Please model this.
Amino acid sequence: METTPRSALLTGRTIAAATTAALGMAWALFAACGPHAAKAPPSLADALDRMPPQAQLDTLRALSALRPDDARLAFHAGNAFYELAMDTPPEHSQEADAWYDSATTAYRRATTLDSTYSRAYVNMGLAYDAWRKRADARAAFTRALEVNPRDVLAYCHLGYLEYTLGNKTAAMDDYQRALAIDPDSPQAHYNLGLAFAEANIFHEALREWERVAALDPDGELGKMAGDNARIIRQYLADEPAGTP
Model:
C-alpha cells in the first residue's frame, strides 16, 4: 500500500494547533506536495513511513492547513487512519470501525479533489474490505479501473476480493489482466501463488512465490513469499514417492 496520514478536515473535528515539530516537518515538506503529482514525492512518503500513525496525522494537519485542497495529503491521511484501524485489537471493534470510517472518508476526499486518483480508490477498497464491506470494496476497485484501466494493483486486489468470495474464475482473470500489463508484478504473482496453493497445485505455487521473492527481495511481500516457498519446498521434499 502506498504511504499515509490525515487532516481534521476529514473527520469534522476542530484541529488543535500543530506541535512545533510537526510544523517544522510541514514547512520542510511543503514544497514537495504538489496537488497534481503522479504520486507522493519520495521525500514526503519516506518521512511519513518513519512516523507512527498519530505523528503522521499531526504532520498532515499542519500540511493541510497550508494546502487544504491537496489530494495527496488526503490520501496519506486515509492511509494513517487505515493503519490505526489495522493496529486496533479485535476486542475494540467499534474503535476500529471508526478508524475505517475515517480512512474511507479521507480516500473519498482525495478522489473528490482529484477524480483521476486511482490509487486512492484502490486503498479505499482495501479499507472497505478490511471493514467487511465487500460490495463497497468491489465498487472502489472497479472505479479505480475505470479511471485507470492499467492500474495493476486494482486488478490484483479486485481479484483477491473475488477469490475470497468464491468467484475463482473471475479472480484468475483479474490476475492475468494484471500480468498482461506488468508481467513482473509481485502482487499478481503472490496472489496466483495463494490460488495455486489453495488448489493443492504446489509446484505452481512454489514457482510463483519464488518469483515474488526474486522480484521483491527486500520488501514485505517478497519476504512472505520466501517463507511460503520454504514451507512448500519442505512439504514437497517430505511428500511420499508416488503421491500426485
